[in-house]
């Protein structure tokens, strides 16, 4: 089995998890193969080979200076505070060497560096949600999609903030080595295999704030774990041992969402995952997700996603195989 060289570009102010997350995934693939370096050989490089200080204060010692780094199959550019006003020499290096890589990958705001180097023009990309508007404004030749956790466009792959880099790396391992390899790595790292790329950056749990009071946090967790149950305000209030009126007011105050909107978001997210990851029928998924009837789920999908469930599933699998 031929190995793939992965080169990670380092710079002061890099986000440490943008580096270590994907690196752990690629290194884990070697563990699956049973031989170090059999599948991926990881190299890190800074501009002059000097140690870099990450945004969290950790110091990382690179393997090489960029000028001496091996030619990569996969060139990975992480994000972090250092992407704001980067060293022009890093951009120049990316502009010269980026087109030679078989695969260009960015994590979080690493997309900004690729964009500055002109490597994303004409492509659909994503980045951390907080920087999507800036990326689109500064680089009008790029189509910026703020919703997915990662986007593939030809040999270019971009991902959203921090942990989305792990999802993207798992997707690349699955592409290179197969699902069993990616599943083995995911299990070892105790992460999901894998959140699909078109999953929204804001899940229900991220869209809403976590409630301060324990009874309300328990209700949030219950809703997520039991989307098919009776989740009316009265039932949820009883679980929190509050009156319905007090519960509804407290839930919205502490989470920023009404109980009904939170339930709707959880149910839609649950139904999407079942459509993406199973072959269950729409009627079965509607019941499991708490919609009751396929028509109720159909209305929710059209209202929120602009497509009925069957069409959503078809588009998802077309995207995954293209």
Automatic annotation (TrEMBL):
One of its GO terms (molecular function) is DNA-binding transcription factor activity. InterPro entries: Class_I_gatase-like (IPR029062), DJ-1/PfpI (IPR002818), Homeodomain-like_sf (IPR009057), HTH_AraC (IPR018060), INH-QAR (IPR052158). SMART domains: HTH_ARAC. Residues 217-315 form the HTH araC/xylS-type domain. Keywords: Transcription, Transcription regulation. The keyword Metal-binding does not apply. SUPFAM superfamilies: Class I glutamine amidotransferase-like, Homeodomain-like. This is GlxA family transcriptional regulator. The lineage of its organism: Bacteria, Bacillati, Actinomycetota, Actinomycetes, Kitasatosporales.
């Amino acid at each position: 089995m031929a190995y793939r060289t992965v080169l990670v570009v380092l710079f002061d102010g890099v986000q440490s998890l943008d580096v270590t997350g994907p690196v752990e995934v690629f290194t884990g693939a070697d563990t699956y193969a049973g031989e170090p370096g059999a599948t991926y050989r990881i190299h890190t490089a800074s501009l002059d080979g000097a140690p870099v200080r990450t945004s969290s204060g950790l110091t990382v010692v690179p393997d090489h200076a960029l000028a001496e780094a091996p030619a990569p199959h996969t060139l990975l550019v992480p994000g972090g505070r250092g992407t704001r006003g980067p060293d022009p020499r890093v951009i120049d290096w990316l502009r010269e060497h980026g087109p030679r890589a078989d695969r260009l990958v960015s994590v979080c705001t690493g997309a900004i560096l690729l964009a500055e180097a002109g490597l994303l023009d004409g492509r659909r990309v994503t980045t951390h949600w907080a920087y999507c508007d800036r990326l689109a404004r500064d680089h009008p030749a790029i189509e910026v999609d703020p919703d997915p956790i990662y986007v593939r466009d030809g040999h270019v792959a971009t991902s959203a903030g921090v942990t989305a880099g792990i999802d993207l790396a798992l997707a690349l391992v699955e592409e290179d080595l197969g699902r069993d390899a990616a599943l083995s790595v995911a299990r070892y790292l105790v992460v999901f295999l894998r959140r699909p790329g078109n999953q929204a950056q804001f899940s229900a749990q991220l869209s809403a704030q976590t409630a301060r009071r324990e009874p309300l946090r328990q209700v949030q967790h219950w809703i997520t774990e039991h989307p098919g149950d009776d989740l009316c305000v009265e039932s949820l209030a009883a679980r929190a041992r509050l009156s319905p009126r007090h519960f509804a007011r407290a839930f919205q105050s502490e989470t920023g969402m009404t109980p009904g909107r939170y339930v709707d978001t959880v149910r839609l997210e649950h139904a999407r995952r079942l459509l993406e990851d199973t072959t269950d029928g729409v009627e079965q998924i509607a019941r499991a997700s708490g919609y009751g009837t396929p028509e109720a789920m159909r209305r929710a999908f059209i209202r929120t996603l602009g497509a009925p469930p069957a069409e959503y599933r078809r588009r998802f699998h077309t995207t995954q195989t293209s």
